[in-house]
């Protein structure tokens, strides 16, 4: 695909799994050590190897958007800081997620609306995405639905909505450690998307 891909559909923030993979990446594993950790040690503790592979690949791609300091904060930092940095990594890795936050979520905040209304919001958003990247039109209905489902779960995990049922907007206060990290590493555009409540 061009501008967008549907990779986010492989999973939400997956904090416990991401902590384990961040710790592994900090050891600079060889290709063999990486596959051994997933397969032999079942690092992600999944029943199906294919699921573990797909999720591990997504988590790794997200974590690779961060520096070593970010990996350490995710592996060992507080729940709040680790979650916010995973949220930042998801924004960096997934343009469709970043644009949804910027176009749909921030738009609702500006209009002082209380809730997301996924059916309506998603269709309008996807129509805009098709303008930027015609390939989006070729995504299957089930893939589009899965991408939306994961985006809403990530918003709930990041505390941007109170739950996936009510979808009430609850923009979080960003933790100073997460803000400092993003500023220090020049991720001001990511910070602007995350901190739109101000």
TrEMBL record:
Pfam families: BrxA
Superkingdom of origin organism: Bacteria
Family matches, as InterPro entries: BrxA (IPR014948), BrxA_sf (IPR023137)
The protein's name in its UniProt record: Inner membrane protein (DUF1819)
Naturally occurring in which organism (per UniProt): Candidatus Accumulibacter aalborgensis
Organismal lineage: Bacteria, Pseudomonadati, Pseudomonadota, Betaproteobacteria, Candidatus Accumulibacter
């Amino acid at each position: 695909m061009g501008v967008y891909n549907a990779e986010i559909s492989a999973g939400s923030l997956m904090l416990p799994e991401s902590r384990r993979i961040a710790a592994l990446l900090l050891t600079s594993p060889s290709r063999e050590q990486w596959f051994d950790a997933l397969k032999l040690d079942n690092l992600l503790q999944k029943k199906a190897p294919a699921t573990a592979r797909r999720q591990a690949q997504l988590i790794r791609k997200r974590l690779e958007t961060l520096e070593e300091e970010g990996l350490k904060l995710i592996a060992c930092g507080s729940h709040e800081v680790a979650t916010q940095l995973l949220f930042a990594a998801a924004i960096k890795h997934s343009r469709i997620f970043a644009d949804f936050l910027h176009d749909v979520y921030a738009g609702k905040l500006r209009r002082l609306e209380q809730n997301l209304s996924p059916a309506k919001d998603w269709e309008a958003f996807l129509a805009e995405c098709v303008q930027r990247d015609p390939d989006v039109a070729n995504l299957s209905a089930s893939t589009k639905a899965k991408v939306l489902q994961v985006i809403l779960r990530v918003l709930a995990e990041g505390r941007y909505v109170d739950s996936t049922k009510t979808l009430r907007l609850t923009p979080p206060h960003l933790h100073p450690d997460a803000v400092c990290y993003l500023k220090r590493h020049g991720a001001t555009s990511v910070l602007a998307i995350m901190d739109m409540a101000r």
